[in-house]
Known about the structure:
By secondary structure, this protein is α/β, with parallel strands linked by helices. The protein is 17% helix and 38% strand. The chain folds into two domains: 1-58, 2,3-Dihydroxybiphenyl 1,2-Dioxygenase, domain 1 (Roll); 71-125, 2,3-Dihydroxybiphenyl 1,2-Dioxygenase, domain 1 (Roll), CATH 3.10.180.
Amino acid sequence: MQIHHIAIICSDYAVSKKFYTEVLGLSIIREVYREERQSYKLDLAIGDHYVIELFSFPNPPKRLSRPESCGLRHLAFSVESVEDKRNELIKKGLDCEEIRTDEFTDKKFFFTSDPDDLPLEFYEV
């Protein structure tokens, strides 16, 4: 078994679309507008691997707390170099936490957030 994709509901579709495609660099597989739901659905990939469905819905409720609310705690991306990724994201205007080291694996990681404050982790492989 493998994870097929992750679904994210955003509060501002244009802002989140720009963030996930231009800031994080995910590529668009397809984009559809579903009239009956007044909702966009944007399928995104890392390389050729389908990974995220980005949805818009009218008036979605806010996330309760960061990050210890029930449900998805954070989304983690693997990267070759956390230093390079952190510097890249800071240059693009993101507020990134300091780099930490996982006490169990000795791998480096850091957190930032998407436009709706969903915590995003970048973990060195």
